[in-house]
Amino acid sequence: MTKAVYPGSFDPITHGHCDLVERAARQFDQVVVAIANNINKQTMFTVDERVELAEKVLAHLPNVTVISVTGLIVDFTEQQGATAILRGLRAVSDFEFEFQLASMNRNLKPDIETLFMTPAEQYAYISSSLVKEVARFNGDVSMFLHPLVLERVKQKLAAQ
Ligand code: ADP
After folding, report:
1. Which distant-in-sequence residues (6+ apart) come within 8 Å of 78 by Cβ?
2. pLDDT at position 110
3. CB neighbours of 106 closer than 8 A, spacing ≥ 6?
4. Domain limits of the chain?
C-alpha cells in the first residue's frame, strides 16, 4: 500500500491545495492531509476549524483523510506508515525554502522521500495568505475557494 502525507497550514484550504490532493489521490492508495497545529504561527482559523473545512472540501475523495499534527512532520509520517511527504511547488520563489525543508527532513529521516507536485495553471499563483489579503479588501476570491470556505472567510472578516 502506498501512502503519502501532505502537510501544511491550510489556513484555509484553497483550490490550489485541493487540486494537489486530487492529483495525489490518483497516485497513492492513501493520502493524509496533515494540518499543522503550530502555535507560533498566527492563523485566521483554529486548527479544528482548518481540519473541519478541509474534511468538507475533500469529502469526495474516499482515500483522503485529514488529521491535525503537532510536532515534526517526519515523525508523523513515520507513525502513519507513510513513505512520502508531498509539497506543492508554485513559482520559483517556493523552491529555496522547500529545498531546505526537504534536505532537513531527509537528514532527520533518510527513508522518507519528499515529492513535489505542481498545481493546475490557474492555481499556480495563489496562496492562502494572498487570498485572505484580497478578501480583506473585499476582492472577489470566489474562483479560488470552495463556497463553504469563502463563507467562513467572510464571517471571520466580519467578526474582526
Ligand atoms: P505551509 O505554511 O506549510 O507553507 P500552506 O498551507 O501554505 O502551508 O501550504 C501547504 C503546501 O501546499 C505547501 O507545499 C505549499 O507550497 C503548497 N501550496 C499552497 N498553495 C498552493 C497552490 N496554489 N498550488 C500548489 N501548491 C500549493
Report:
1. 109, 112
2. 98
3. 112, 114
4. 3-159
Cα–Cα distance, 29 to 122 (Å, whole number): 27
**How far is ligand 1, taken at its centre, from the CA of residue 88, in Å?**
5
What is the dihedral sign for C-alpha 97, 33, 59, 64? positive
Residue 92 DSSP one-character state: G
**Closest alpha carbon to 90 in 51, 122, 58, 68:** 122
pLDDT at 40: 81
114 CB within 6 A, ligand 1 = no
Q: What is the CATH number of domain 3-159?
A: 3.40.50.620
pLDDT digits (tens, 9 = 90+) for 119-134: 999 999 999 999 999 9
Choosing from 19, 20, 73 the residue with most ligand 1 atoms within 8 A of its CB, the one to mutate for a pocket test is 20
